[in-house]
Design goal:
By secondary structure, this protein is an all-alpha fold. It has 7 helices and no strands. The termini are far apart.
Length: 166
C-alpha cells in the first residue's frame, strides 16, 4: 500500500461510518430523547395525591387560623384585678362559664377536679396579667376554639406571666 492510501481508506471509513448512522447523528437522537426523559422525571399527580395534598394544606390552614384566633383573643382586659387571688377567682368563673357553654353534658362530672387544678396552676405559676388574660379570652372564645383551652391558657402565660430573672 502506498502511504497516501491509508489516509484515503481512513477517510472512506469515516464517511461510511457517518453515512450509516454512526458519529454525529447519535448526538441528535439523544437531544430528541431528552425532553421525553424530562417528562418522565415529573410524573403526573393522580387524584389521590392531589386529595392528600389538599387535605394537608387544609390542615395547615386550620392550624394557622386557630393560632391567629388565639393570638387575637389573648389580650389584657381594660381593668386588671389588684391581687392574684382575685384574678384566679375570675379565671375560675370564666372557665366554668366556658365549659358550661360548650360542654354542658361532661362538665359537671369533671368540674371539681378541673377547677381545683386550675386554681392551683393559677396561683402557683401565673401572674395577675396572665390570669386576667385567660379569664377574658375564655369568656370571649368562640365555638371554633371550644377545644383550644390549653392553647388559650398557654398563650396568655407565654405573653404575660412574669419570667424569672436568670
Amino acid at each position: 500500500m502506498k502511504p497516501g492510501t491509508v489516509r484515503t481508506v481512513g477517510a472512506t471509513a469515516l464517511l461510511l461510518l457517518v453515512a450509516c448512522g454512526g458519529g454525529a447523528p447519535a448526538a441528535e437522537t439523544k437531544k430528541q430523547d431528552a425532553p421525553v426523559e424530562a417528562k418522565k422525571a415529573e410524573p403526573e399527580k393522580n387524584k389521590y395525591t392531589l386529595e392528600r395534598e389538599a387535605k394537608a394544606q387544609a390542615a395547615k390552614d386550620a392550624v394557622e387560623k386557630k393560632t391567629k384566633m388565639v393570638d387575637e383573643l389573648t389580650v389584657l382586659p381594660e381593668k386588671l384585678p389588684k391581687k392574684l387571688d382575685k384574678a384566679c377567682e375570675e379565671l375560675g368563673v370564666a372557665m366554668d362559664g366556658f365549659m358550661l357553654k360548650w360542654f354542658p353534658e361532661n362538665w359537671p362530672k369533671l368540674k371539681t377536679k378541673q377547677m381545683a387544678d386550675l386554681k392551683e396552676s393559677c396561683t402557683s405559676t401565673a401572674s395577675i396579667e396572665a390570669a386576667a388574660c385567660q379569664a377574658k379570652a375564655l369568656a370571649a372564645a368562640p365555638e371554633e376554639l371550644n377545644k383550644a383551652v390549653p392553647d388559650i391558657l398557654l398563650a396568655c402565660i407565654e405573653k404575660f406571666a412574669k419570667k424569672p430573672a436568670g
